[in-house]
Amino acid sequence: MTTRRAVLASAFSVRPFGVGAGLGALLHAGPSWAGAQMEEPLVDSVRTALSSAIANHAPPVPEFSDTESRLRYLRWLGAMSERLARKYSDWNIRKEFLQTVWYESRRAGLDESLVLGLIQVESNFRKFAVSSAGARGYMQVMPFWTRVLADGDASKLFHMQTNLRFGCVILRHYLNRERGDWFMALGRYNGSRGRAPYPQAVLKAQKIWLA
Fold first, then answer.
1. Which of 2, 21, 153, 202 is most buried (most C-beta within 10 Å)?
2. DSSP letters along 131-153, please?
């Protein structure tokens, strides 16, 4: 796990943004701020690094160095599963989804609660969500990313791990571009860089997913 995360991790640490409230209202709200990433030129070294980060399709199997780390994960999984039950009634679906969020978030050096908050805002946890701009899936990834970083098959963005992998890699890329500024990175992810509503919505949603 440490080796895989090193591909994307930067010197910027990720911290939670507060305590949660309003779980029911937020979980039942529609995706108010879903937008679209803008296609921008990438230097070859950046494209190569991002492509490499996308290409490893190993299954998201958690690995732990000690018993306490495993117990922390299991406590997190249990707590998040209870909160997600309003969206997915089946335990196995919740487990697979949360395990993948945990794996891909950590692999990209992101906080799981922030990724869950972003998914809440972007797609309201709908696997097959499509925005008016054409962004797809849980994390509303624009199809051009599959052409820039992979084989160009945009249909793969409806595959759970692929969508979460792309979303987390792209968000980490934007965070690096913005030198650790979450406000600007989230705006860039949404295609609304510099405007407050979307970052504020994600950070508000994040609060209900804090462990």
1. 202
2. -TT--BTTTTB-THHHHHHSSS-
What is the full DSSP assignment across 173-195?
HHHHHTTT-HHHHHHHHHT-TT-
Q: For the residues of 41-80, what is the DSSP string, one character each? A: ---HHHHHHHHHHHH---------SSHHHHHHHHHHHHHH
Scan for tokens 């968000």, then name that residue: 171
Cα–Cα distance for residue pair 93/84, rounded to 1 Å: 10
Q: What is the per-residue pLDDT for 57?
A: 72
Across all residues in the chain, what is the average pLDDT?
Answer: 85
Q: Return the structure tokens found at 64.
A: 């732990």
The residues with which 136 forms a beta bridge, in sequence order, are 130, 141
**Alpha-carbon distance 35 to 5, whole Å?**
27
Query: Who has greater pLDDT, 146 or 27?
Result: 146
The mean pLDDT value for 19-32 works out to 42
Q: How far apart are CA 164 and CA 101, in angstroms?
A: 7
CA distances from 148 to 22, 49, 153 (A): 39, 12, 11
Whole-model pTM: value is 0.83
SS3 205: helix
Percent of the chain's residues with pLDDT above 90:
75
Report, in angstroms and rounded to the nearest whole number, the Rg of the chain calculated over CA atoms.
16
What is the CB neighbour count within 10 angstroms for residue 55? Answer: 11
Which pLDDT tens digit goes with each residue over 83-114? 999 999 999 999 999 999 999 999 999 999 99
State the distance between the two ends of the chain, measured CA to CA, in whole angstroms.
21
